[in-house]
Amino acid sequence: MSSSTYIAPTDHAKAADKFMEDEERVNWHDKALWFIREKRDVASKQLPEWELLRETASQIKLNVLGNLDAYLEQFEQNAKQNGITVHWAADAAEHNRIVLDIIQKHGIQKLVKSKSMLTEECHLNDYLADNGIDVVDTDLGERVVQLAQEPPSHIVLPCIHKRKEEVGELFHKHLGTEKGASDPAYLTEAARQHLREKFLTSDLAITGVNFAIAETGGFVVCTNEGNADMGAHLAKVHIACMGIEKIIPKAENLSVFLRLLARSATGQPITTYSSHFHRPRPDQEMHIVLVDNGRSIQLGRKDFYNSLKCIRCGACINTCPVYRRSGGHSYHYAISGPIGAILAPNMDMKKNADLPFASTLCGSCTNVCPVKIDIHNQLYQWRQVLAKEGYVPSSKTQGMKVMASVLSNPTMFRMAGKSGRFMMRLAPGLANIKAVNPWAKQRDMPEAPKESFREWYIKNKKKS
Amino acid sequence: MKVGLFIPCYIDQFYPQVAVATLQLLEKLGVEVDYPLQQTCCGQPMANSGFSHYTQGCDSLFVKNFTGYDYIVAPSGSCVLHIKDHLHDDQNQAAADQIRSRIYELCEFLTDVLQVKELQASFPHKVGFHVSCHGQRGLYLSQMSELNAPDFSKPGFLLSLVKDIELVQLNRKDECCGFGGTFCVTEEAVSVKMGKDRVQDHLEHGAEYITGGDVSCLMHMEGILKRQKSPVKVLHIAEILNGQL
Fold first, then answer.
1. Are B188 and A13 an interchain contact pair (Cβ–Cβ within 8 Å)?
2. Which candidate, A319, A342, A414, B239, has a CA 20 to 30 Å from the CA of A32?
3. pTM here?
4. Chain B residue closest to A40 (CA)?
5. Which residues of chain A have pLDDT under 70?
6. Smallest CA–CA separation between A6 and chain B, in Å?
7. What are residue A212's DSSP bridge partners?
8. Residues of A in contact with B192 (CB under 8 A)
């Protein structure tokens, strides 16, 4: 694609502008997430072996990615032996079709679903709704955003962008709670009663998968609300949907990952429920859908494949100073924040070209990551790919060309510097015109000195 | 020992006093310093914007200017990290590699190479230290709060040698200020909000000055302070360590 014809979207910056219109909201959004980051710091510092755990997790996952085909086949074989039906989906569309087929085979009209970022990635809810199926998200935060007809803004805390008053309004409208009520305990109890009825009357439950174990053919689902268990245990049919990178070789590897996951996510030692599913109950059907949806393409990208180590803890999101101020929806992708910004371009470079630029490359993400994904380096590398492939605005490309030629030519650099500083001293107001100079919208320009360091040096230091 | 002084472009043009302080400080410590006159920029503005394929000119010029020195020293963690990670010259990769291994940010040069144990400097003020991300998480000038690892700070040690200085504690000791290169204009709103929040942390703790190792972060925070008509000033750490204020 030619760089001169393509204008990249600047969605992240625009959406961030909008989110920031309400500075009070931004302040508590930032504080709420920073509070979780601090809880994560405390939890991680209680384990002397924390950094070793991270390294071990990283190595286990690298081994998985290097032998993914073998582990997947081992998992499939063992899962089948356990009586689980295993399906393979090349992409989101195939995944959605497989799930719908199972639902329709049983003549089911409504179902419950616990948190699964994969199904968000595949837009399963919309697809099922279009086919007349009533899907109820049972994770409380997900139910809130579902009622608000919004996507989750965070992979672990789906409605972190909503005030409790806003949740109260939603519940008043949809669940019949008292108008104006915003007490979290009251609202949670209302949701509990509402969801209980859904659990009891649903014949089919969809869950995600946190870890699938190759040697046992079983899988683990982690929740804090027990909603995956409530759904799966009450339903005649359990469908678990997972990305193919969720495999780990052995059950003993859980001793590494379960210790890292919740500490990284929320600062808890472990999720309240870590539920191990191995086989269907005698009266139950259990299905697993193994989904590729771009993962094998990412696996083939030398600079980016290790993003598939991700265990979806959200630590990089909580720590990201940009995310905390721009909100999750500004990333316009199922997975927000730094990890989303390195996964999204793999799915669609054109649509997600803005995301790797929504970062200061501060590197905090990389260093909280429990599986040591070098997120900020990958953000940098994606920028190189996107610029080379022409997915950045042509004005930027032209600007960079000019900048590069000036900065590589000492004479031009000095002329530009001198005239620029002269202009700024002559008319300091000019450089501060907000419409021309985005720097100056909310910041003053530095004062221009009379001479550059080089000029000072020649005058004062240079021995002839 | 011969040191090549690398003064990043925006310091040369807008903050010459930082370069002067760096030069004077190094000379006071007995270092022979040379300033190559044809230097411009490390190329980071292009590379961080995705255009590392446009930086060959800057890279070759950098190699030409800084080949042959025992050390290259700069008062900027960010530019030093860029050279360390990315300097590349097809015509002369060996020289580029040598520069990458010999370039130091000012503070780490003072603590690690010169092993400075005392300084003739006094600064009787309340000072907030801004930790720059590239210096900390890239060059490991100090321990980051993300890791479960022993605490240390090279610039913190140097500031402890300054008489009468009072360093203020911050709520968030190593949060990014939001400058981020071209990010500061392409994501203007987020950048400014991050800057305002960072500045506020220093103000809440009574800082009269904000110092740090990167002029880019300081320039960003200075722009916000000035717009707020705040009396709080920014100073590069070299200016404090040089003791000529």
1. yes
2. A342
3. 0.96
4. B146
5. 1-10, 430, 463-464
6. 16
7. A219, A247
8. 441-443
